[in-house]
Design goal:
The complex is a heterodimer of chains A (173) and B (110). Chain A has 173 residues and is mostly helical. Chain A contains 6 helices and 3 strands. Chain A has 2 domains: 2-59; 66-172, no CATH class. Chain A has helices at 2-30, 35-59, 66-95, 115-127, 153-160, 162-172, and strands spanning 104-109, 131-137, 140-145. Chain A has a 3-stranded antiparallel sheet. In chain A, a hairpin with a 2-residue loop joins strand 2 and strand 3. Chain B is mostly helical. Chain B has one domain. In chain B, 81% of the residues lie in helices and 2% in strands. Chain B has helices spanning 2-25, 29-54, 59-87, 100-109, and one strand spanning 97-98. In chain B, helix 1 runs antiparallel to helix 2 (29-54) and helix 2 (29-54) packs antiparallel against helix 3 (59-87). Chain B is elongated, with a radius of gyration of 18 Å. The chains are: A mainly alpha (173), B mainly alpha (110). The interface between A and B is large, with 42 and 50 residues.
Chain lengths: 173, 110
């Protein structure tokens, strides 16, 4: 009984999030508040969120609390800074006459449990300076590194994964 | 607003150019992917947002598009790199370490 209540609660939560997100994206795309646009957007967003709410529940995302939102904002800030650094880094390596690279493929370990968290970590690693994710299996990530700083698992984990895990752990943990 | 848009678009174009130069100069698939995706993420982002800044009524659209690029770009990079690894494209001679074997063995054991 209590499980059924829990599941319907999950469904409502997924429905609310999906409806909010799809509706805001629609409003941004049409960029007008004319009644026909709003009504048609409302109908489509409603249909999508009714059909997709159970998928959202399947993701197992944690409820949004103030603390999680704060960490999420800090995380987005860090990610943007890392993206800018990544671009300057690649620009330097491309323009340097001798192309200063020391590439290799290393393995790192993550302590994150949920699939969504691992997905975000893998994508963040891809966006940051000199690394991109080739494969994820369980708690290990296979990573191509353009300038290898450490070949062992512990060292590579410290250099690549830690700066994001610091923020992702409070959000998903 | 117009000037900010112009600056943003120009910087974005420079990054896009550097990205394509990197694809040309790097020695193997994996390093080319590094250059190709890193620079195009910020390059495309700045270019699209710059256009949004110059034409203010396009700004919300531009922001939505650039967020989609930010989310999907690493995924395509990952797919290309993984496919290259599966097909067995070798690393370039400069490479110092390759842990793929270890990784694959571990996967088989489980």
């Amino acid at each position: 009984m209590s499980q059924g209540v829990d599941r319907s609660h999950e469904w409502v939560r997924g429905f609310a999030w999906l409806f909010g997100i799809t509706f805001v994206v629609w409003l941004a795309l049409v960029s007008s508040l004319a009644p026909p646009e709003v009504i048609s957007g409302c109908i489509v967003a409603l249909a999508i969120s009714i059909l997709g709410a159970h998928l959202y529940a399947g993701l197992g995302l944690p409820a949004l609390t103030l603390k999680r939102a704060a960490f999420l904002l800090a995380y987005i800030g860090v990610l943007f800074w890392e993206i800018i650094k990544a671009n300057l880094d690649v620009a330097y390596r491309v323009l340097h006459p001798r192309i200063p690279i020391r590439p290799g493929i290393v393995v790192i370990r993550t302590s994150l449990k949920s699939n969504v968290a691992k997905l975000i970590l893998a994508n963040s690693i891809t966006l940051t300076p000199g690394t991109f994710t080739l494969d994820v299996v369980d708690d290990q990530l296979l990573i191509h590194w353009i300038y290898v700083g450490a070949t062992d698992v512990e060292g590579a984990t410290r250099l690549i994964g830690k700066r994001f895990e610091k923020y992702l752990k409070p959000i998903f943990g | 607003m117009n000037v900010a848009g112009l600056i943003s678009t120009t910087v974005g174009t420079i990054f896009l150019f550097l990205g394509s130069l990197g694809v040309f100069r790097m020695p193997d698939v994996y390093n080319r992917l590094q250059a190709g995706t890193k620079c195009t993420t910020l390059g495309a982002f700045l270019t699209i947002v710059g256009v949004g800044l110059m034409h203010n009524d396009w700004l919300p659209k531009a922001l939505v598009i650039s967020v989609f690029i930010l989310i999907t770009n690493p995924v395509s990079n990952h797919a290309l790199g993984r496919a290259a690894r599966k097909v067995g494209v070798p690393l370039c001679k400069k490479s110092v370490v390759d842990k793929t074997e270890e990784f694959e063995q571990r996967k088989v054991r489980q």
